[in-house]
Amino acid sequence: MNRLLTWTTYVPALAIVALALTWGRTLTIIPIIVVTLLLAGAVLAAVHHAEVVAHRVGEPFGSLVLAVAVTVIEVGLIVTLMVSGGPETASLARDTVFAAVMITTTGIVGLSLLVGSLRFGTTLFNAEGSGAALATVAMLATMSLVLPSFTSSQPGPEFSPAQLTFAALMSLVLYIAYVLTQTIRHRDFFLPVAQEGERIDEEAHADPPSNRDALYSAGLLMVALVAVVGLAKVESPTIEDTVSAVGFPHSFVGVVIALLVLLPETLAAVRAARLGRIQTSLNLAYGSAIASIGLTIPTIATLSIWLDGPLVLGLGPTQLVLLALTVVVSVLTIVPGRATRLQGSVHLVLLAAFLFLAVNP
After folding, report:
1. What is the tens place of the pLDDT at every residue in 90-132?
2. How many angstroms separate the CA atoms of 273 and 276, rounded?
3. What are the residues whose beta carbons fall under 8 Å from the beta carbon of 242, sequence distance 6 or more?
4. For the purposes of burial, counting CB atoms within 10 Å of the CB of 310, is it exposed (0-12), middle (13-18) or buried (19 or more)?
5. 88: Cβ contacts below 8 Å, ≥ 6 apart
6. How far is CA 286 from the centre of its chain?
7. CB neighbour class for 211 (10 Å; exposed up to 12, middle 13-18, buried from 19)
8. What are phi and psi of 338, to 5 degrees?
9. So what's the pLDDT on residue 343?
10. Where is the Sodium/calcium exchanger membrane region domain (predicted)?
11. Distance between CA 131 and CA 195 in Å, rounded?
């Protein structure tokens, strides 16, 4: 009975009710504020339930659960907006996926390293697992977001149908290979590494929840994530109108979508970093980037058969420079297997540059 009275149970339920009442309607200022508050509450509830599931299944499966769940929601939101939108949504998938890659590899990684280093001095993690994940991110991003700007079979930054099919299949193959490596063959590469002078945290070593509690949280996690994407869709007209009103490029809508759907993982990664589980934070960051490309591109490629208009995937010159710099900086951060607050600060400055240039291209 007590479990049913907790805020992590009734907030997702209220968010679903609000979603049903507001779906397809034009909202005034008061409903918008209520929806925003419930959206934030659903995000926090999703983080809580994801951590319960993660504690039960253990690492790295816990990170994988949240990464896949959030990416499925991201894909659903992109598709919904592309179906209901006009020609300006042709690049929405690219903008959202690239924003997700930058937010995870610079924002989540940088914030986790900074939080961890502020507490432990020097953060330690497994370079083999993180390096393999980073290499997968770099390959997926190059194949799906960089090459379309340089191919010549199709005019503009687009793939031809054959090229898009190849990129979608290879993205899916890489994603499956990463999951098998992370969870089966080399699972130890992705397990948390003890920090120097780490203090034992009772919460980090608490007994895992029962199967019943884990299933209960898994169900509420799905409810919370559906509420997040649904309420984000309800607020999307407001988001688009606000972006236009302040004079930001329409591509910034993709950044807002990525920020919304990645908020649960950001909070979970920072919490793990505070407890000294830096590897868990990196698993969340890079796993989310891999899932974002490896699942989104094949899905969008398949749906493009029925969607009207072009599918613009190629990045522009500024985005290409930011992506290349991010890969170089990330390699220099990951290879040593240890990092300080300086590396965290560098990644966060990269995120700031991305956000600033997204507003002022």
Report:
1. 788 888 889 999 999 999 999 999 999 998 888 989 899 999 9
2. 5
3. none
4. middle
5. 250
6. 9
7. exposed
8. -155, 150
9. 94
10. 32-183, 217-358
11. 19
- pTM beyond 0.70: the answer is yes
Q: What is the 3-state secondary structure (H, E, C) of 191-227?
A: CCCCCCCCCCCCCCCCCCCCHHHHHHHHHHHHHHHHH
Average pLDDT of every residue of the chain: 83
User: For the structural domain made of 3-359, what CATH number should be given?
Assistant: 1.20.1420.30
* Residues of the chain with confidence (pLDDT) below 70: 1-5, 58-63, 66-67, 70-71, 74, 77, 80-88, 196-208
